[in-house]
Amino acid sequence: MSPGNSSYDLIVIGAGPGGYVAAIRAAQLGMKVACVEKDKTLGGTCLNVGCIPSKALLESSELYAQAKHKLSEHGIGVEKVSLDLKKFMERKEKIVKQLTGGIALLFKKNKITPVTGTAQIQKDKQVVVTQSGGALTLTAPHILIATGSRPTTIPGVVVDQKNIFDSTGALSLDRIPKEMVVIGGGYIGLELGSVFLRLGSEVTILEALDQILPGMDRDLGKNLQRILEKQGMNFKLQVQVNKANVKKDQDIEVDYDSVDVQSAKIKCDAVLVAVGRKPYTDGLGLSEAGIQTDEKGRIICNENFETTCAGVYAIGDVIAGPMLAHKASEEGVAVVEVMSGKGASVNYSAIPGVVYTWPEVASVGLTEEAVKQKGINPQIFKFPFLANGRALVLGEKEGFVKLIADKESDRLLGAHLLGPRASDLIAELTLAMEYQACAEDIARTIHAHPTLAEAVKEAALGLGSGAIHL
Ligand code: NAD
Known about the structure:
Blueprint: E1 10-13, H1 19-28, E2 33-37, H2 44-49, H3 51-70, H4 85-109, E3 113-116, E4 118-121, E5 126-131, E6 134-139, E7 142-145, E8 149-151, E9 164-165, H5 167-170, E10 179-183, H6 187-199, E11 202-206, H7 218-231, E12 234-236, E13 240-248, E14 251-257, E15 264-268, E16 270-273, E17 277-279, E18 312-314, H8 325-339, E19 353-355, E20 360-365, H9 368-373, E21 378-384, H10 389-393, E22 400-406, E23 412-419, H11 422-434, H12 439-443, H13 454-462
Parallel strand pairs: 1-2, 1-7, 2-3, 7-18, 9-16, 10-11, 10-16, 11-12
Antiparallel strand pairs: 4-5, 5-6, 8-17, 13-14, 14-15, 19-20, 20-23, 21-22, 22-23
Helix pairs in contact: 1-8, 3-4, 3-6
The structure holds nicotinamide-adenine-dinucleotide.
Nicotinamide-adenine-dinucleotide binds at residues 154, 183-189, 191, 206-209, 214, 241, 274-277, 322-324, 354-356.
């Protein structure tokens, strides 16, 4: 696309949920904005090969699993449940297309200039964009790096997207593996592992640490593992993967050490590597522009998101903090508001995290472990979904709402949910954290009946005068 005039108020590099949101907010604030994106479609990892397509596959696979295993509970008989993998993937593609096209329309509406190409930052507030037909130079007093991250792997495991996949490859698999080994028991491993488990694959998670979902409250990982095991997922914790050897197509041997066995082997026909992501800064010309990075390759910036090069800012997965789309978007809004002279900041103590397994996991604030480490005297209460009417109606008996409050002040410190629609329930608790609410504030708020949200109220009651339904 032609950028027209090459002089802007702001050049955003990267059109993911950090960059495109920043571009829109900047345009709303009256800035003339160009957004450079190397890929053909807008939306970044989130819309193209991350959050959205994975949630589409999770939804479809959950419906398939329900038709196979859960409908009979309701007295509904289904003669034969079949799966058309091509159609299954096409539905996902259609959703992705609709949403990425939607960003293009929003850019048009906000008069943002999209520029397709690879950006390199120059010293003098210039950005050179390399395109298939040549290069062009854009200038602006403000440059925002929002280039995100990309999947990483481990030594001895080479992603070929044929036998050994990263999340991008696994989202477009054209076969259902018989046996899938997933390296990494974090967000991606558990979500995509769940998709293939539901489709009929034998899934084994190999996790380096002694718990899945490290970083989240221990109760969540422990209980989710128990539930996923009941669904048929296999777990091997505290393992070190040495090598994944592709003997021939769809014949792979993964060699690993565990606490009790050295050089154990597991055969499979697909490997998913989900051991984290790393900042994507290739070709940006960071060092030439005087932009420093830390030991993990993350761009160093101050509280206003300004890098070590004045006028150049960075947000999202390329800087420190959780690699989450909503964190990037929030930083995107804050950084352009700061640029335009408004005061803005991001409340890092109230960033929710959600894992879209079934049941879902959702968390905000401090974990029990972190509270104890900080020497805070906590009060903790867990209300099980088993005692919630709506959960029973939905056939969801697993999970809980766990709330942590400061014993002296009653202020909410953290909320950790495992259960149906935890992804939606966490919003109330994030708002409570944002408002620095006490458990009693939540407990005295009227919650509609019968809803899953009543479990949140009951947990808050449990921290004070006592839960009613337990
Ligand atoms: P992650 O950090 O969530 O999990 C990686 C897991 O791999 C960890 O449990 C880690 O201990 C383990 N691990 C690391 N090295 C290992 C090794 N050599 N052998 C075995 N296990 C090893 O990373 P991810 O699942 O790859 O996801 C990447 C990022 O994407 C995350 O930061 C996450 O925030 C984001 N993401 C978010 C969502 C969501 O919001 N629902 C979904 C997918 C991804």
